[in-house]
């Protein structure tokens, strides 16, 4: 899965109607609502939109015939294998009716045009883990974790040694945590955070 690196725009004219798409990466539903509110144009006849965050998604036809705007925009998001993305497409009516098929092509096409041009970044699923070490193992294990692109989120100390909170790729978590235990000769205590 991918998300967008930044807000992108695209526009096209279809039979004198103007369609302008805005697409953005979003973190949660509130961010989607904020983006839609800030990028909907009150002068437009319609502000149709869709967003997806994992299995959650929403879309709106904003007065267009049912299924002709929001669903095609969502289909454009899904067609690009995107997640955590919101798209709003304002339309200024040009006087010529497009029909249901024309609306589907115009809204979905404008959204797809915008998303195709956007710079994408791969979404990597991560998990957090806690690693309790002896002081003598700290330098070596931190160096190896950093070499494997493991993010050290927090570092605290107890009387027994450092406690690291790390963020690792989910698909590499088991191997990396096993490496920590091996490097500490079995003394490190590791646990995945829920």
UniProtKB/TrEMBL annotation:
Q: Name the InterPro entries on file.
A: EFG_III/V, Impact, Impact_N, Impact_N_sf, Ribosomal_Su5_D2-typ_SF, UPF0029_Impact_C, UPF0029_Impact_CS
Residues folding into a coiled coil are none
Gene3D superfamilies per UniProt: 3.30.70.240, Impact, N-terminal domain (3.30.230.30)
Which Pfam family would be a valid example here? Impact_N
Impact N-terminal domain sequence ranges: 15-114
Q: Which family does it belong to?
A: Belongs to the IMPACT family.
Protein name per its UniProtKB record: IMPACT family protein
Q: Which organism is it from?
A: Ensifer adhaerens
């Amino acid at each position: 899965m991918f998300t967008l690196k930044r807000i992108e725009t695209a526009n096209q004219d279809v039979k004198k109607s103007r369609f302008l798409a805005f697409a953005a990466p979003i973190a949660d539903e509130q961010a989607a609502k904020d983006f839609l509110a800030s990028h909907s144009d009150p002068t437009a006849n319609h502000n149709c939109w869709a967003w997806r965050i994992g299995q959650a998604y929403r879309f709106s036809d904003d007065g267009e015939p049912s299924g002709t705007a929001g669903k095609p925009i969502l289909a454009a998001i899904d067609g690009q294998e995107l997640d955590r993305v919101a798209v709003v497409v304002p339309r200024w009516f040009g006087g010529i009716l497009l029909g249901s098929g024309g609306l589907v092509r115009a809204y979905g096409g404008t959204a797809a045009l915008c998303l195709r041009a956007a710079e994408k970044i791969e979404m990597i699923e991560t998990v957090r883990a806690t690693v309790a070490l002896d002081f003598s193992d700290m330098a070596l294990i931190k160096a190896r974790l950093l070499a494997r692109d493991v993010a050290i989120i927090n570092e605290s100390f107890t009387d027994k040694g450092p406690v690291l909170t790390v963020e690792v790729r989910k698909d590499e978590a088991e191997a990396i945590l096993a490496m920590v235990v091996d490097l500490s000769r079995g003394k490190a205590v590791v646990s995945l955070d829920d």
